[in-house]
Specification:
The chain folds into two domains: 65 residues; 217 residues, Alpha-Beta Complex (Spore Coat Polysaccharide Biosynthesis Protein SpsA, Chain A), CATH 3.90.550. The chain is an alpha/beta fold. β8 and β9 form a beta hairpin. It is elongated and about 105 Å long. The strands form three sheets. Strands 3-2-1-4-10-6-11 form a seven-stranded mixed beta sheet, sandwiched between helices. It has a three-stranded antiparallel beta sheet with strand order 7-8-9, with no helix packed on it. A two-stranded antiparallel sheet has the order 5-12.
């Protein structure tokens, strides 16, 4: 091989080394650029997340400190309840909705001779004003195992106790009374609909009375009758979840309460009959369903006895259901 051939080979080798070195440097530079881009995107993501965290912290602070708008009436929600396997699940569903409602005061009244830890614990985590009461329904008024659920009025003593508490403790407040049973589902919008109640407002209720919707019949902005599947002869054919009362208006009617002895299905009608006439009712949420009777389905606990025999303790031992 001549001198020129050797020189050519050396040149080609050097040239290849230069190319490889250039590619290596380029790859390193590209890698660094990609890392910088990723870091920038990461920083943007972190910044956005920090902003969201700060916003959430501010919301939590407002809830925890019970910041309220004193220019709007308080919603006093009265919930009778009793001990059963689904109780905590039902009350938790209500709590999640009520937490989102401004100026709400939750009054839970247990059908019990004493206050239970379950309800105490639940209200401890409720970030709004609340009141925990209890009164036991007399044995003669309680449903027997084979009784139909509608055969005796329920929650009478509990609701009356809550109304007495309001008379004694909130008589100088502007507010709205609403009876929210623990086996229903509530839209947050419902409470804004009833907040302007001057006397008694009425609204549609879903999945009740054997039909999809029970509602007041409205004409010209006035209630003129009732569209229901059962008991349309009642003067006020409305469900317990289908009306709200202005607190100050209620306080002017000092003797009004739920009656212990009424015709089946007439508890609400007999109560409202003491307060208003049909033409005084205020229809709200017209054309909207904002509350539903969504009773928890009958429980299937047919393996609980087997569990107890097999393990020697019940399945909820050591844990609050």
């Amino acid at each position: 091989m001549g001198a020129f051939g050797i020189r050519g080979m050396c040149w080609r080798r050097n040239r290849m080394k230069q190319i490889y070195a250039g590619l290596l440097v380029s790859s390193i530079l590209i890698g660094i650029w990609l890392l910088l881009q990723a870091q920038t995107e990461h920083n943007d993501t972190v910044f956005k997340l920090n902003q969201e965290i700060q916003t959430l912290r501010a919301k939590i602070h407002r809830i925890q400190t019970h910041e309220v708008d004193t220019s709007i009436p308080i919603i006093y929600v009265i919930t009778p309840t009793y001990t059963r396997p689904v109780q905590k699940a039902e009350l938790t569903r209500l709590m999640n909705a009520f937490t989102l409602v401004p100026n709400l005061h939750w009054i839970i009244v247990e059908d019990s001779s004493s206050k239970t830890d379950l309800v105490k614990n639940l209200l401890t985590s409720f970030p709004k004003p609340s009141t925990h009461l209890n009164i036991q329904t007399p044995a003669k008024m309680k449903l027997k195992p084979k009784d139909k659920w509608w055969s005796k009025p329920r929650g009478v003593f509990q609701r009356n106790l809550a109304l007495s508490w309001l008379k004694e403790n909130e008589k100088n407040k502007e507010g709205i009374i609403y009876f929210a049973d623990d086996d229903n589902t509530y839209s947050v919008d419902l409470f804004e609909e009833i907040r302007g109640t001057k006397r008694v407002s009425v609204l549609p209720v879903g999945l009740v009375g054997g039909v999809k919707v029970e509602k007041p019949q409205v004409s010209g902005g006035k209630v003129v009758g009732w569209e229901v599947g059962w008991g349309n002869e009642r003067p006020f054919a409305v469900d317990m979840a289908g009306f709200a009362i202005n607190l100050q208006y209620f306080l002017k009617h000092t003797d009004v309460k739920f009656l212990e002895q009424v015709k089946v299905g007439h508890q609400e009608s007999e109560f409202l009959f003491q307060l208003v006439s049909l033409d005084q009712l205020e229809p709200v949420a017209v054309g909207r369903v904002l509350v539903w009777h969504t009773r928890t389905q009958a429980l299937n606990l047919n393996r609980e006895d087997w569990f107890l025999k097999h393990y020697g303790y019940s399945s909820d031992t050591g844990i609050e259901l």
